[in-house]
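hiii so um. not sure if this is the right channel but i have a protein structure encoded as tokens and i wanna go backwards to a sequence. like what aa goes where. can anyone help
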């Protein structure tokens, strides 16, 4: 199959024909239909987060099941699926308590001495990326790294649900549990931030403030449901938010991944408010919070994949789109071929693109 391979962080990806193994007992082989190019991929491609090389990045995908392992019971060939990188075992403490995104059980991964899922044409093993390696024509994944969805859901839109929408919407529905009339500020209007804004609109938030330095992204945020938008570079940003909301927002969502924006999320909260950090802050960097402000009852929390319960929440998000409630169309900036992957990453580095979606034939 054809795949985009990363041999060295900071270098362009290369398109190669590589070999993919057959499904193990609890694995499924998926023909990739579409894959979003996410900023989280960029963190690994540029070396901010380490990963074993060579590897095939990509983790926001949808496709069609081609084959299943001997112990797979929930899926069958022909099923349309959304994949997600937070594969879960289903039986550990995190899974049974409704937090599958936190699962760390190694039983979902092949043993170190097993046959690699991917190899170069010359036999060199290729490291699997975030349980998916989705920048490829096929994915070989654990059955609990995907969920079947309605066949009438467009797969190029379904792919976005696997990371950006899952995370952004989850920060509203699961992490924050926003109720009608409450106020929300979203810092960073990329795919995740726009999804949080759209979810806040669906939840009935009273004021939804989009914060981003790029005017075009703030315009998209308005289209997705923001009631107000502010320039992230404004020197009096925090004061503007406090004035708009009579003392601060109930919930702040950080979707950038920088210490400064995480600190801003804290400062725009009202007393008793909650800030949720979705962005991937680089290893070695820290967030600084003034000690006395904890006396205001505010909360700072992290989140992975929006704390979503994948088998339940992903089909619901699909139905929201089919019902015309969830807006996925606005998020797609361009549709590209796999060969254009480096162009998509250049767009992310410039900070202007929302989502490039790779479409496979």
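sure thing!! here u go:
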């Amino acid at each position: 199959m054809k795949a985009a391979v990363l041999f060295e962080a900071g270098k362009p990806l290369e398109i190669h024909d590589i070999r993919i193994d057959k499904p193990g007992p609890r694995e499924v082989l998926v023909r990739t239909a579409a894959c979003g190019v996410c900023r989280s991929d960029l963190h690994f491609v540029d070396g901010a987060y380490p990963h074993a090389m060579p590897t095939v990045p990509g983790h926001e995908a949808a496709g069609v099941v081609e084959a299943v392992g001997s112990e797979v019971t929930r899926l069958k060939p022909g099923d349309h699926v959304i994949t997600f990188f937070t594969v879960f075992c289903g039986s550990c403490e995190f899974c049974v308590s409704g937090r599958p995104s936190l699962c760390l059980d190694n039983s979902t991964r092949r043993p170190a001495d097993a046959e690699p899922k991917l190899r170069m044409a010359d036999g060199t093993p290729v490291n699997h990326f975030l349980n998916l390696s989705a920048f490829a024509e096929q994915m070989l994944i654990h059955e609990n790294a995907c969920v079947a969805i309605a066949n009438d859901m467009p797969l190029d839109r379904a792919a976005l649900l696997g990371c950006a929408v899952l995370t952004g919407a989850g920060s509203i529905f699961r992490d924050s549990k926003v109720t009608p009339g409450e106020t929300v500020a979203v810092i960073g209007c990329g795919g995740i931030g726009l999804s949080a804004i759209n979810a806040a609109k669906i939840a009935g938030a009273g004021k939804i403030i989009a914060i981003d330095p790029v005017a075009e992204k703030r315009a998209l945020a308005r289209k997705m449901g923001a009631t107000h938008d502010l320039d992230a570079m404004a020197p009096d940003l925090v004061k503007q938010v406090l004035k708009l909301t009579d003392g601060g927002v109930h919930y702040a969502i950080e979707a950038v991944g920088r210490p400064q924006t995480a600190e801003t999320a804290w400062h725009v909260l009202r007393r008793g408010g909650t800030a949720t950090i979705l962005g991937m802050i680089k290893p070695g960097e820290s967030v600084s919070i003034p000690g006395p402000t904890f006396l205001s009852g505010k909360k700072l929390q992290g989140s992975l994949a929006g704390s979503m319960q994948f088998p339940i929440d992903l089909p619901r998000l699909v139905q929201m789109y089919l019902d015309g409630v969830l807006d996925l169309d606005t998020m797609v900036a361009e549709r590209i071929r796999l060969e254009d992957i480096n162009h998509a990453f250049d767009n992310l580095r410039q900070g202007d693109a929302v989502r490039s979606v790779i479409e496979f034939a």
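oh and The longest strand covers residues 27-37.
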